[in-house]
Amino acid sequence: MSDLGESLDELGYGIVPKLVDLEDCAALVARWGDDAAFRKRVVMQKHGFGRGEYRYFAYPLPPLVQALRTSLYAELAPIANRWRARLGLASEFPATLEAYLEKCHAAGQARPTPLVLRYEAGDFNCLHQDLYGEQVFPLQVTVLLSEPARDFTGGEFLLVEQRPRAQSRGEVVPLARGDAVVFAVRERPRRGPRGFHRAQMRHGVSRIRSGLRFSLGIIFHDAA
Question: Could you say which of 3.40.50.720, 2.60.120.10, 1.10.260.40, 2.60.120.620 is the CATH number of the domain covering 2-218?
Fold first, then answer.
């Protein structure tokens, strides 16, 4: 995780190659039609979010999603606390996901947020931040479940960093099937000439040119 931490500190994101194997990617895609696995479906164009749709998993999460959420949180919590320290804030995130979710639920955020997103030709996801209440874990994860160039074209993962008194910086993050990108939910500490300051981050997906693109989103804070 040291390379990942360095990339997150420098760029606001980092890639974990082959986090999910191909069989598990296919199994997660196949869950799309299982209504019992999900608590909510969102059609993005109805809300001005872009085009496409996504479904939030219900509790209990599928075992793979639960395992990923638990293990990734444990690896990322020290980075999240380091980011807070760089912004002059006290550590806020406990060592385990279970303890963190207790904080979320005490704040009225008890609905699960891991989700599967589905895009077809012409769909896209506007730049946004995934905020669901007062409790916000500053990092989240997206896993690409489809194969670029075979299952779909277009559909690049996008990140934009807003820099104080400067133009925004955009980046396309290349992913293969099963790869994960870990990135800042809302902001990250960015080193400037006078120390660290807050850099606002937004993420999205460019227009799908052909085919179907599925991804898994792992958000660590629950929703109100």
Answer: 2.60.120.620
